[in-house]
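Recall the central idea of this unit: under ordinary conditions, the amino acid sequence of a chain determines the structure it adopts. In this exercise we apply that idea directly, starting from the sequence alone.
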Amino acid sequence: MKKLKNLAAATLVAAGLATAGAAAAEPLKIGFVYVSPIGDAGWTYQHDQGRLQMEEALGDKVQTKYIESVPEGGESQRVIRQFAADGYDLVFTTSFGYMNPTLKVAKRFPKVAFEHATGYKRAKNVGTYVARFYEGRYLAGIAAGKMTESNVAGYVAAFPIPEVVRGINAFARGMRSVNPQAEVKVIWVNSWFDPGREREAADALIAQGADVVTHHTDSTAAVQVAEEKGVMAVGYHSDMSKYGPNAQITAVTHHWGEHYTAAAQAVIDGSWESREVWGGIAQGMIDIAAFGPSVPQDVQDMVMAAKQAIRQGEMHPFDGPVLDQDGNETIPEGRAMSDAELAKMDYYVQGVQGKLPK
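Accordingly, the structure predicted from this sequence is:
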């Protein structure tokens, strides 16, 4: 009888170990919420490339799902909540307007880890991540400032939030660092992804004298218009040279794969915690695409030297003095703008035309 009891106990222990082993082998379920279609270039495309890079790095340790073209607001909250209710362990919400919906869902699902792109509000189970887009913008501005003949650049912008304003200002400062006569004109389309309105805005900027256009919107429309009109373009999010083989002089590119891999591995290890991630050129989150055929070698060399200086911490796109468009000093000579100041930037610098919408 004693032997039978021992055998039964051993069987139960073995079964328990087998169950634990099966549980340990369960992949981490990860959800991604995208604001626009994935397509083959742009903001969402780059995030999806990051998801694929994470899958390749972690293999069968993860299982991912994405929902694309999710509007900001109530619909995004429903999608985020569904991921959490379906047992997803980690959810990436990849647009600024998902910030409050993410926080609301996270409060109801405290055991789920959430990461929100470009936001500034965190909670115990909500972290934030953003790239230093302005570093790439400054570099692209140097190229544009050297290449322009009209001394006017056009900028198609989405919403007047600090992230977008930083990009406009960094681009203008990059241009004026090599061409003090350069000016940037901005048209706001109040949408992250609206190819029709983006196209109209690019057309209008070119009609106003811009011979180089760029954009902080998700589609390739601005680059395509530049190609059609025979002017220059700076792509954004992705290398968009296939849409503007003659127009694109370079592009500011975003790279999310390493962050996604690290965050997923941290959840797997049990070491994930809410934090703010803000990575730039030095961290590999921001880069510039290959230069177009029209960019002279000396301009390429100038941009690459500035890139190296930023990487090594020897240069900051907002090194003082920083002046607003009315000539008021906001950052004195001898120091660079702090992250806290960058995070709430709400004014145009010198060289940007027009008034910033409030």
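The first strand starts at residue 28 and ends at 33.
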